[in-house]
Amino acid sequence: MSTLIPHWRAGARWPGATPEPERYADVHDPATGQVSGRVALASGAEVDAVVADAVAAGREWAETSLSRRTSVLFAFREVLVRRREEVAAAITAEHGKVLDDALGEVQRGLEVAEFACGAPHLLKGGFSEGVSSGVDVYSIRQALGVVAVISPFNFPAMVPLWFVPVAIACGNAVVLKPSEKDPSTSLLLAEIWAEAGLPDGVFNVVQGDKVAVDSLLTHRDVKAVSFVGSTPVARYVYETGTAHGKRVQALGGAKNHMVVLPDADLEAAADAAVSAGFGSAGERCMAISALVCVDPVADRLVPLIAERMAGLVTGDGRRGSDMGPLVTATHRDKVASYVDAGAEAGASVVVDGRGVQPDGAEGGFWLGPTLLDHVETSMSVYTDEIFGPVLSVLRVPSYDAALELVNANPYGNGTAIFTHDGGAARRFQHEVEVGMVGVNVPIPVPMAYYSFGGWKSSLFGDSHAHGTEGIHFFTRGKVVTSRWPTPDLPRPGIDLGFPQHR
Ligand code: NAD
């Protein structure tokens, strides 16, 4: 019987013993294909019970002094540093990404926790003395109450950490609904919060699927929702959550382009394309999946990339491989079917990952790195988000054609330009309709003190994750105008006119 992966409620695994959950889903080790656990899928009533706890705990937490809240954040950071390898191992065991990459994910999440340690400064309001006779005005930011975080499979630690430390530092209680494909990391994060001294009920986990998501989206006591996942679900979450009066930020899918101009350092561009195309088996929302080569770059760049790909080892992430398996067999088959469709539509398969010989068990969900050349914008391998280790090369005659291609794409998460021409790079950063731009940097994920988010179909809502936008998302502003009577101030008297501070 495989292990049950439960919820986290009132500071402990819930249910603590292991009665059969009414609904559950199998969790796999993608490198072996074996079922490694069964995750509970919450009912609406279970979500209600967790939210009720969070409401009560959140009220007290919001009244807890900022200094005390901050000390828990610092402690969380310390415990996470100490337990980072354990967290990374849990990620690799259920997601499949190689251990180094999993550690990198934890590190990027940790940076948001470090950012959130600055909450006392970040939550400071403004104060204007004497805006009128004896009148002062000041602004404060207050917690929202209970907020929900709904996360995707591809970053089981980093994506929750984009939101949770910031929300908690701001005085909110959080209910996390992780992906049912790799749910165990969420419980480790919960243990780490508990070890850091966070009061029970401030951080909670409900495992589950659409049932749990819908319960959170329609729950009266959930005040805000931070979602990350595919575009159709992001749109649904945004529309449903806002229709129920919630503040929602819903980060969606992506199709990221790397534009290479003829004057670029092609050796560096080839390194970047391989790293950004095949890291985490392409299961990153910032992965490069479309390489836009401005003529005559492709003739030289494609062989350089193929040469590098020949040295990549696909295999079990615990064995020092370069690239792990895909997350599920279904996803692997879907990604492979895009390669089939691309080849049938006339793309040339320069490197074919479909017959890869992995360094791993036979039953793993393997697909090797794949390079397609002469891809056209009408092919499904280009139009759809594939989310796998497939890099498509599109050839264009000029910078203008490259820009037009990138801007015509419905997604706008990340993009990069490779060039030695500062003027062209500056033009690109100004003209491209994408939220995160790299100049000779293939995966321009902003640091925690900036905000992460795309444009167009890559984000619904108007707040990006973490940075100052995160602080604003998880707080409500209030402005106080005050007058304290003093002996030297005349009483204002009756005045039915609109208040004017003169
Ligand atoms: P997904 O949309 O399938 O699932 C995301 C979350 O939504 C999960 O918790 C899942 O349980 C839930 N969910 C799934 N279907 C649902 C439905 N019909 N109704 C309600 N909830 C539902 O995404 P995924 O496959 O887990 O993750 C990969 C996707 O996430 C990719 O599209 C990727 O680009 C995107 N992503 C985007 C970013 C970003 O920052 N923009 C970051 C990471 C991942």
Bound molecules: nicotinamide-adenine-dinucleotide
Name the beta content range: 15-25%
Extract low-pLDDT stretches.
none
Strand order of the largest sheet: 15-16-17-14-13-19-20
Distance between the termini: 76 Å
Largest sheet: 7 strands, mixed
* Average pLDDT for all residues: 97
- The residue fraction in helices comes out at 25-40%
Structural class: alpha/beta
Rough outline:
globular
Q: Work out the number of β strands.
A: 23
Count of helix runs: 16
What does this structure look like?
The protein is of the alpha/beta class. It is 38% helix and 23% strand. It has 16 helices and 23 strands. It has a 7-stranded mixed β-sheet with strand order 15-16-17-14-13-19-20, with helices on both faces. A 6-stranded mixed β-sheet has the order 10-9-8-11-12-22, sandwiched between helices. It starts with a strand and ends in a 19-residue tail after the last strand. The structure holds nicotinamide-adenine-dinucleotide.
Helix/strand layout:
Layout: E1 3-5, E2 7-9, E3 12-14, E4 24-29, E5 34-40, H1 44-63, H2 66-82, H3 84-95, H4 99-116, H5 119-122, E6 127-132, E7 135-143, E8 146-150, H6 158-169, E9 173-177, H7 184-195, E10 203-205, H8 210-218, E11 222-228, H9 231-243, E12 247-251, E13 256-260, H10 266-278, E14 288-294, H11 297-309, H12 329-344, E15 348-351, E16 370-373, H13 380-383, E17 390-396, H14 399-408, E18 411-412, E19 414-418, H15 422-431, E20 436-439, E21 455-456, E22 459-460, H16 467-473, E23 475-483
Parallel strand pairs: 1-5, 8-9, 8-11, 9-10, 11-12, 13-14, 13-19, 14-17, 16-17, 19-20
Antiparallel strand pairs: 2-3, 4-5, 6-7, 7-23, 12-22, 15-16, 18-21
Helix pairs in contact: 1-8, 2-4, 2-7, 3-4, 3-7, 4-6, 10-11
Bound molecules: nicotinamide-adenine-dinucleotide (NAD).
Nicotinamide-adenine-dinucleotide (NAD) binds next to α8 and α9.
